[in-house]
Amino acid sequence: MFSYRHAFHAGNHADVLKHTILIAVLKHLALKDTALTVFDTHAGAGLYRLDGDYAQTSAEAADGFVKLTTSQLKEPLAPILQDYLDTVASFNAKGQWKVYPGSPFIIQRQLQGRDKLKLFEIHPTDSKTLSANIAQLEVGRQVAILKEDGFEGIKKFLPPPARRALVLCDPSYEIKNDYARVPAMVADSLQRFATGTYAVWYPIIPRPEAHDVPKKLKTLATKAGKSWLHATLTVKSSKLLQGAEGEVIRPGLPASGMFIINPPHTLKAALQLALPQMVALLKQDQHATFSLESGG
Ligand code: SAM
Which residues are identified as catalytic? Predict the structure, then answer.
C-alpha cells in the first residue's frame, strides 16, 4: 500500500521550498516566550543519508539543495535561504554533504526546552527508523513519535496546552484521497484551534485534485477570517517527454507549493527575496518560475 519513501527525494527542490519556509516560520515562532507545540502529521524517517542507496538512485538532492552550496549568484543568499543552508550544513562535517535532515530534525533543532514536538509516521519501516534516529537525540519526552494516521491523530491534541502551535502537513499524496483529506484536516483543526499556524505542502502536477488543494485552503482561510500565504516553485515544464524509442517519460516532479494559514507577518517579504533565487539556482528549463500571493 505504501510505496512512497522520502529517502528517494530528500533534499530535492520541493524540500528546499518546504524546509526553507518551515525554518523561517519556526524562527519567528521562537521569538515569543510561550511554549510551542509543533505537529508533523507526515514525518518520514527523519534523517537521510545522501550517499546511501535510496538518495543515490534519484540523485534529486544534486538538483536540489546542493545547487545552493555552489551558488554563482552575484548577491548573497537571501537570509531565509542562508538559514536553510546553515541548518543542513549543521548536520554535516564541514564541506561535506552526506546527510539531509528531514522535517523532524529540522523542527527539533529550532525548539527550546519548553517546546514539544509530535511526529506522526504510519509507515512501519520509516516509523522504526524515525524512532531510532530520534532516540539518538536523547531529548526524552520533548519529542513523541506516534505510529498512526496523522490526519486523524492530530485531533486529540488541539487546542494545545499553551495555545501556540505549528502544524506541518506534508503527505506523500500517493493515495488519491490525501488531496481531500488535507483540507478536511485543516478545516477541522481551524475549528478546534483557529489561531494555530498551518503549513501545507502539495505537489503541482497535471491533476485537478492537486490544483484543488490551494483553492480549498484559500476558501477555508478566508471563511475563517485568517491571513494566508501561498508560495509556489516551478523548476521545469510538466510536459511529458518522449524517449529514444518513442516511449513516454514522465518528467519527475516539476513544481510544488506551500500554503500557510496564519503565517508570520515577516514571511512574505522574506520569500520575495528568496523565491527568485530559488528559481535562479534550481531551474531545469525555461519554464522555471515562482508565485507568491497572500490574503486575509
Ligand atoms: N515531512 C517529511 C520531511 O519533510 O522530511 C517528509 C514526509 S513524506 C513526504 C510523507 C510521509 O508520510 C511518508 O514517510 C509516509 O510513510 C507517511 N504517511 C503516509 N500517509 C500517512 C498518514 N496517513 N499518517 C501519517 N504518515 C503518513
Answer: 170
